[in-house]
Amino acid sequence: MSRRSSKRAEQATAVIPFRAIADATYDWESWHGTDGRLIWVNPAVERLTGYSVAECHAMEDYPLALVLPEDRVAIAAILAAAREGSSGNDAEFRIQHRDGSMKWAAISWQPMSMPQQGHLGFRTSVRDTTERRRLRDQLRLHAEHLQQLVQERTARIQQLERHRRKIEKLAALGQLAAGVAHEINNPLAGLRNAFELIKADLHPQHPHFELLELIDREIERVGAIVHQMYQLYGRAPQRATEFDLAQTVREVVDLLSRGARKRGVSLQRETAENLPPVRLPEGEVKQVLYNLIQNAVQASPAGQTVRIRVAGDRDEIAVIVEDRGPGIPDDVLPRIFDPFFSTKTDDVHAGMGLGLSVSRSVIEALGGRIEVDSRPARGSTFTAIFPTRAVASQEETGDADTQPEFENPDR
Known about the structure:
The chain is 47% helix and 21% strand. The protein is an alpha+beta fold.
């Protein structure tokens, strides 16, 4: 027997008393000689790798053959250090199972020695950490998700704070606007009455009669602005009545058709069949429709058509107003319902930017909503969705005879 074989036999004999204990160990245990070759491995190797003890002893490159190829360089470095007498703990790597699956594991290594024999080699202990790894990854994902939720909640709080400040600002502005509207309304009524008397005394052939017509239109425009302020900030709910919404749409379209023709814009109306009647404050519905259709006409270039479609079911009826104007830029779209915000800055006859604010305020009070779809250079679509019945507070309050007046700007 050679000296090396004799020494290996002595090493094996020295560890025999410990094999009964090591064979029952749950972790994958291996004992290596001073040259790094395998002396003993416990049966747990088959549970972790699918390879038997005998197959492991037959491997020339044990345990590297059982390691995922991407991790073999790291494990080879650990084994080389172990042969030199180093120790280490809990170095993670991946096991290549016989069935092709992969498991995570952690290896620990220590040198072995006995008083008479001296250095005998080293031992390795491999523990299955797949479940630990899974839980760790799951915890990491939960932590990332929690961090994302915190960021989203923080952003939401900041958004709500900005919204609160905006509401406070608008509330203060609303009080001011309502006060101004109230103060303007009375002298405006006096001016209108006095002007009517002056106008009645002048013959239509008078050289300055056209100026009177201009003054008349401007007084009506101021009156409309004051009325919109009341609608937005001091509106009194009207009593709901039952009516045909499609007929109301027809009346508003007829009212605006002459002004549309002057601009070279045509109005096209389409109505679905068998629409149910609605029970809403008709005057407020007309206010919303008038604002949306008038905006579409003003946004449309000459030669284009504004389509007004009416469709719905027993719960909701939608009035869809579609134009082929320049559209609304993405950075402007979130602001179009803000009071006093207007994109028609180059139109001297444009109002104060209250139409959409009033419309949304009115329709939301009824339990409906306005939806917007707009693309630059492709036009805009405003959809007013009315419930077939107003909310209870709208049906039970208000004055049935209170209806807003709609002045034809082209009269």
